[in-house]
Amino acid sequence: MTKTTRKALLGGLAIASASVLLAGCGSAPETSASGDASTSDYLPCMVSDFGGFDDKSFNQLGYDGLMKAGEELEVKPKTVESATETDYASNVQGLVDQGCSTIITVGFALADAAAESAEANPETEYVSIDDIVDIDGDGETDFPNIKPIIFDTAQAAFLAGYLSAGVSQTGVVGTFGGMNFPTVTIFMDGFAQGVTYYNEENAADVQIIGWDSAAQDGSFTGGFEANDGARQIAQGLIDQNADVILPVGGPIYQSAAAAIEDSGKNIALIGADADVYETDPSVGALLLTSILKGIDVGVYDTIVAAGNDEFDATPFIGTLENDGVGIAPFHDWEANVPAELSTKLDELKQSIIDGDITVDSYLAS
């Protein structure tokens, strides 16, 4: 089944909420270690998506969670970075060959490689970040040795969209993504829903550019690198008068930040996955907030449990209710956010948790 077909199938999934809370190059992987000498035979490992472990976003969050767990367990994790999509299968196999006990694949795009490897190695544990690994499209994870850690980021993005509409001075906000994957567009779609809700509640007409909810398509760079293509897309949004921009796709936010700085305009940036104010202080002054995914906590908890022979393949779905997703503090932009708007965001969060507001996504149950 192709990724395009899988993406279409994912759009119709309704996955049951989990009962627990956050409960490279194609040749042989290079080892990345932390802690003292291993005191057990347990060996946790990780394969990145392209973008690398220094993307200051989802790959880095996964890496940080793994290293923290390694310190806790007094083991030395192995990691390998993927440079392109063609590296995925060989990188996973390389970790199998090195005797990894648990292999974490970071990103939707690695699902096929994870499924193939899990089927061939039923005694090895797998953790899939951002995908349930449902290659056959039946709505369930294909193999019992895979634990999905996924996030309904549309809920948090809804809050960021409402916030953005509330602070915009031009009446235009924008977003763009790395690739048209469900784990990217879930941010963009939730963001758009938040803007729409703001307009309905406040008789406003804030426009969102870069994403078309009806078509489920928008502006994409075609990859997850900070490059001139990403910068040009960000510049296009600026040229259309957007004064809040949400880039979704690892380090592509760096290209957006460069475009904002060159414009000389008062434009806010929204981070994705991590609190980018903390992971990349160089763009801190631009950040209104970040849309958060608890990847690091999910990886840490899962690996510590697995290292103690308590691996649980039950899917974890991060939501506002279990703090698996959220929005970061306003940091330097706090003075620009009216107190009543901040209070309203708290109320909206509770309304989403209570079910009074429904945020549509492919993960909504």
TrEMBL record:
Q: Which CDD domains match?
A: PBP1_PrnA-like
What is the protein's name according to its record?
A: Basic membrane protein A
Protein species of origin = Microbacterium halimionae
Q: Where in the cell is it found?
A: Cell membrane
Q: Which GO terms describe its cellular component?
A: plasma membrane
Instruction: Tell me which family the UniProt entry assigns to this protein.
Output: Belongs to the BMP lipoprotein family.
Specify the signal sequence span: 1-23
What is its membrane topology?
Lipid-anchor
Q: Where is it chiefly localized?
A: membrane
Please state every residue range assigned to the domain named ABC transporter substrate-binding protein PnrA-like: 46-359
**Keywords carried by this UniProt record:** Cell membrane, Lipoprotein, Membrane, Signal
